[in-house]
Design brief:
This protein is of the alpha+beta class. It has 10 helices and 8 strands. The protein has a 5-stranded antiparallel β-sheet. A 3-stranded antiparallel β-sheet has the order 5-4-7, with no helix packed on it. The chain binds fe (ii) ion. The site of fe (ii) ion has 4 residues, from loops.
Length: 328
């Protein structure tokens, strides 16, 4: 497979050299989005938890058990999603890929606010694996979501005996993800002839095509799936209006083995420098397949070395695993 096939994205404009120099300071990010916050304690004050009915929770758990994914209608308020979506727009306008928006407290507040949902799935003890992405699909810099794949990050079985995931991908649209702007699609596990015995296969046999499910999702919804669901983001239509902005991140139950040295505990302080390092880490991890400006990749490599002390063993292992999947 070639680079175009994993994610046909192109980030056209690089940040100015001055912006890259300033990017190591919280003030630069504050000036881009003055309505958001950059503090060392992004989980404080604790944000209001979303309200989700028992019936909706039961439905989501049942969907996860039987089809491998869950879809929760909008539970996050516009007061959370709108300012964050606007800030992500400013980040990409400044030439930085969306994942740099992780410097803002509001991203972490969003993750903490869905605690009632995540803890119902993973149990009360879980953490965040900061292997994440922030999409800004506007038809120019990004034209579609990622190609069909299974997350399967660890190669180890990650479903509990009850069929619920111990590692959970969550995908949160901050603007409406429609069939035109770019929606998520899944092949539910119970419609996938390669599940569970042939997970290295990412193609969809002809007879399974009618099992594909489109998941248009209004801003503030939460989609989630286990490590094995085949999923992809569709190509944006030229008729679409407004960018499709969304975040994806993993949560790990304490019952699953830890595999990322950078696990984040909800409630813990996370310095600005650490968050910038996490964004830089994602740039390095995915730079082999996504077309970022060279100056951003260079900045990220150098920042990873500066903050983590190296390019991180984990990242090399991950890159090898991803490469294997892509070249398969
Ligand atoms: Fe994925």
């Amino acid at each position: 497979m070639n680079q175009e096939s994993i994610s046909p994205q192109s980030f056209l404009e690089a940040p100015s050299p001055e912006s890259l120099k300033q990017a190591k300071t919280p003030d630069f990010w504050r000036s881009l989005a003055p309505e958001l916050h950059v503090s060392p304690t992004p989980f404080l004050p604790a944000p209001p938890r979303v309200s989700i009915s028992g019936e909706q929770l039961e439905h989501t758990l049942d969907q996860l058990r039987t089809e491998g994914y869950g879809q929760v209608p909008p539970i996050l308020p516009k007061s959370m999603t709108d300012p964050l979506a606007a800030a992500i727009g400013k980040v990409v306008d400044a030439g930085f890929p969306g994942p740099f928006a992780v410097v803002y407290d509001e991203v972490w507040q969003l993750f903490a606010s869905i605690t009632p949902l995540i803890s119902a799935i993973l149990g009360p003890s879980y953490n965040i694996i900061p292997d994440y992405w922030i999409y800004h699909i506007d038809g120019i810099r990004e034209r579609s979501g990622w190609m069909a794949h299974r997350d399967d990050e660890t190669g180890q079985w990650s479903l509990g005996e009850d069929g619920l995931p111990l590692l959970l991908t969550t995908w949160i649209p901050l603007t409406d993800a429609t069939l035109d702007t770019s929606a998520m699609y899944v092949l539910p596990t119970n419609r996938d002839p390669n599940y569970p015995n042939n997970l290295g296969e990412w193609a969809i046999p002809l007879e399974a095509l009618r099992g594909i499910r489109a998941l248009p999702a209004a801003a503030g919804s939460v989609l989630c799936w286990n490590q094995y669901v085949l999923h992809w983001g569709s190509t944006r239509s030229p008729r679409a209006k407004g960018p499709r902005i969304s975040l994806a991140i993993y949560f790990r139950s304490a019952k699953a083995p830890s595999y990322d040295s950078q696990n984040i505990n909800l409630g813990d302080p996370i310095s600005f420098e650490h968050r910038l390092g996490l964004a830089a880490r994602m740039m390095v991890k995915y730079s082999r397949w996504l077309a970022f400006p060279e100056s951003v990749v260079e900045f990220s490599r150098s920042y990873c070395q500066e903050f983590f002390g190296s390019l991180d063993d984990f990242m090399d292992k991950e890159r090898e695993a991803l490469e294997k999947k892509v070249e398969r």
